[in-house]
Amino acid sequence: MNLDQLKESYNLTGKTIVLTGGNGILGTEMALAAAGCGANVAILDLNTTVTEETQEKINGVNGRIKIFLGNVLNREQMIEARQVVLDEFGKIDALINGAGGNNPRATTSPDLSFFDLPAEAMDFVMKLNLQGTILPSQVFGSIFAEQKEGNIINISSMNAFRPLTRIPAYSAAKAAVSNFTQWLAVHMAQEYSPNIRVNAIAPGFFMTQQNRFLLTDEKTGELTPRGKTIIDHTPMKRFGVPGDLSGVLLWLLSTASAFVTGIVVPVDGGFSAFSGV
Predict the structure, then answer these.
(1) In sequence order, which residues have a C-beta less than 8 Å from that of residue 233 and are 6 or more positions away?
(2) What is the pLDDT of residues 264-277, one digit of tens each?
């Protein structure tokens, strides 16, 4: 591949990408990155309203980003959303499974021991992250199987490599997402087409609303002891920012990674490489 071909491989013009759970900080950044390379992006989320600032960014990519209602735990809604996206854009080339998250009630603390974590809170986290990845992969993956090509990108976590303290359900769920990524990569390539790829991105510590309460003190805004420990064990000495995911995402979406499937890419500032010594 020469330089001109390499540059062209990142041109996503004419491609349609479905992004679940994309109406958050990280999801919006991923959608803007893909749309900026020419793709049409259909965001599926339970929340279809956006801030004025986000709407301005969406307007800046000439309407290539559309937001539709979509519950990743509801098969009928996913099927309906699939048809809506097909009606809007005509085809679907890639799926990014971005829906996921933790629940404070599934997080241990001085006031809530592991032995008292509510089963329904643990079950919610497991379902949202694992089933919320599997179900859209079934609904949209069936299109890829029919057309003999497609691209699925899951969002795992560094918790999948080494579980973090206090969040047992989230760590276990993301480990399952990484395992499922490898399984599905093999399954789709062997059973349907080697032109269907499945990979995952594993973000490290990003300052999102999901984990802000764990990393910063609500009253002072200073780092919590946990937040300080993370920075001390991150060679790059900072938390991730949304744009840090864009390069890896575009590489996995592009034909530059045509021979890559079944991998989980850490984006963690070196956290997983540092032993602490």
Answers:
(1) 271, 274, 276
(2) 999 999 999 998 88
